[in-house]
Design brief:
The chain has one helix and no strands. The protein is mainly alpha-helical and about 60 residues long.
Length: about 60
């Protein structure tokens, strides 16, 4: 454990930190986007058929 090794480690961490932060931000954005797409896809699958069924039922009743 020498001051020189500690300095090198500190500089490496300093240089790598922004990349790690960027990777974390990108990962969280990706998870959010995938979650949003999944939820909208599921919601459209759940909502659209029921809306179609109501529409066809109302047409049949008329």
């Amino acid at each position: 454990y020498t001051p020189l090794g500690f300095t090198a480690f500190y500089l490496t961490a300093l240089v790598a930190a922004p990349f790690y932060a960027l990777a974390a931000v990108l990962a969280s954005i990706g998870v959010l986007v995938i979650t949003a797409i999944y939820f909208t896809d599921t919601a459209s699958r759940l909502l659209l058929p029921s809306a179609r069924n109501q529409f066809s039922l109302s047409k049949v009743q008329k």
